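If your schedule permits, I should be very grateful for your opinion on a structural question. What I wish to show you is a protein chain and, alongside it, a tokenised description of its three-dimensional fold. Would you kindly read the sequence against the tokens and tell me how you understand this chain to fold? Here, with my thanks, is the record as I have it:

===
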Amino acid sequence: MAKIKHNNFIDTVDEMLSAAKNEGAIHLYAEDKILSGRTIQINAKEMFHFATTSYLGLEYDHRLKAAAISAITKYGTQFPLSKTYISHPLYHELENKIEAMYGVPGIVTKNSTLGHFAVIPTAIRDEDGVLLDHQVHWSVQNACQLLKLREIPVEMIRHNNLQMLEEKIKELSSKCKKIWYMADGVYSMFGDYAPIKDLLQLCKKYAQLQLYFDDVHGMSWKGKNGTGYVLDILKELPENIMIVGTLSKTFGASGAVFITSDTKLRERIKNFGGPLTFSAQLEPASVAAASASADIHLSPEIIILQDELAQKITYFNSIIKATSLPMIAPNSSPVFFLGTAMPLTAYRLVQRLFNEGYFVNPGLYPAVPVKNSGIRITVSRNNQEEDIKGLVQALEYHFPKALEETSNTMNKVSMAFGISKITQKKEKLVPQSSLNLQYETSIKQLDRATWNTLLGGQSIFDWDGLCFLEDAFKNSADPKNNWSFHYYIISDNNNVPLLATFFTFGLWKDDMLAPESVSLQLEEKRIRNPFYLTSKVLGMGSLFTEGNHCYINKAHPLSKDAVELLSEQVEMLNQNLNADMLVLRDFDEDVELNRMFHNHGFIKINMPETCIIQNVSWNTIEEFTSTLSARSKKHFTKEILPFEKAFDITIKEQLTPNEIIQGYQLYKNVKNNNYAVNTFTHSIDVFEKMTTNPHWEFILLHLKNTEETQNVSPLVGILFCYKNLDQTYVPSLIGMDYAVPKKFSLYRQLLFQGIKRAQELSYKRIDFGITATFEKRKLGAKVIPKIAYIQAKDNFSMEFMGTLQTK
């Protein structure tokens, strides 16, 4: 079916990160002979290190290094046995120290990712439910995928949205014994915190609520004994809260630790916790280093180290606040994020900082929404004040330069992140004299011949077709089918068109291209709330049209400038409309466009394939069958052609009121039985306007009355067909009676009648649209892959749907 597959997501991420690699921003190698934590050498250049997640720099402490060396000397490089059978000699000492730090025993795992896979499926019972914060770490979300196999409800809430969390708790309260909310203590990209005190109030209100915190980025630099941000707020650990800490990152060694005061749960995890049972244990060197670090955490020295880091964080905050740099989620954690909005700006800024001698990381999709790209900066105890001051000065100088060279602005960044706007002179992508832009909100304001020359002959978006669409959907009383229209034509000074396209703005279902099982679940919720998981989308073309919605004169030397100008204009429109998503759709694969749209903050996805028939020049059925493959010819002659005589076939330019009602019901039958592309059901007035429009006609199939069909209504099938410029025949919508016995192949018969009608009218092409590509290919259709570029405010809807069951 016409759905987006998981492979498409992987391919998209691969393409995004490949672009970052090509820009020299990721997949780098340190070249140092000796590491100190303050600097790092890359491509023969020494840089100050502002990207570490070891905020206290303990991995360089001589005590940890000496302990690791001694352990290797005494015990070798590994202890290759499952910890279920026996732990190597240093484990017991480490576990005792972990208990001393937290006040309860801990479970030591190889790392936090494997730990989540060990703990989560064991801790969450079949009668429980799980709610995930949208920004909780990937490793937590991935471990929860295992729960779906047991049909445990796993849902997602928007980041730190307590109102949504409470609503979800209420929804699950009657179905679940315990409801687990999973979040980070300190979030790894923006450095903001979980609202722990507010969550504790929810726990008092809802006894079922359990809290699960991944606090690896809050570890060591915060809390008594360095036990982390979460425990620093809690002070004591209640039984309904589990904390995940780390023995790597700021702790300076390797591994992770899971803390719960629920003794029975702790023993159950240790007895059989997946990777705990079947994976290797930590190497002796790692355990020894962790044990040495635990000694520091249990001593007064940890307070001194924490204070030293806190001073540097305070210093960074004090000087960054004196600038106009757009820092996202300012706080007192060691993690900071400078927003750039566009990925290309992030790449350029990273490279500029590298050249100045400062190593930072880009924050990119999928770790952040693509339009929320930026620079992640971390402050560690190893950074000196002069390093910090130099970094901020470099940012102040290079950030505006990176904006300018990527045609970005401070206001664009502000709008992308929803922060206070900063007035800045508007920049133009090209000199005003180079390109002329015509923007209109109705096709009637554009010249018919010009539009049809550029974009006519496809689907239903020739000039007359757009007149119909505006009449049917513009200012509609039905909010689900109310669209505004936006037209762009860009030309050079000689009035040579370089680009032409149109957009519609309206509501889309977020699961439009999701698996059908997801759509079925969401449609149950939409019975009560028709607008559940819907978004305001500014989309190229419309949900009624398919094909190449954007004409680009690629041979013209200014074509790239025209695309850049269009991108700038529609992003401005997108912001003015307060849309949730911007979609550029139905493109053929194009390397140059991929690069340009990626740099503007779009991600590429594969769209459902479209089907066209380009050979309608035959005169007889025999000639038609000769255009088919041998297999398709056999299928046609045995399963379609013999049943044509079972139907009375009528072609009408207008429908009676009763036929409109019957045809609309048949259309709804198909719509309600097919979630291949899940859009809103069109209202009946769209069909009423079709029957008064001279460019539409209707192919009606009545099943002849026989003993086998006596219980079937007379009108059993209908095609709603648009006639485009005497060139393209467009069977746009279909309606069917599912009571017709399968042997009559009603759907295939309707397709065949559409093909016959196009040939009778001497049309050159048939636009058969998306879905059912297998059936259309059998009748000679060519299947064409299409791609789209999307830019969303956040990734919530996509990731939320990923948590739903897909049986």
Q: What stands out?
A: The chain is about 40% helix and 20% strand. Residues 650 and 679 are 29 Å apart (CA to CA).
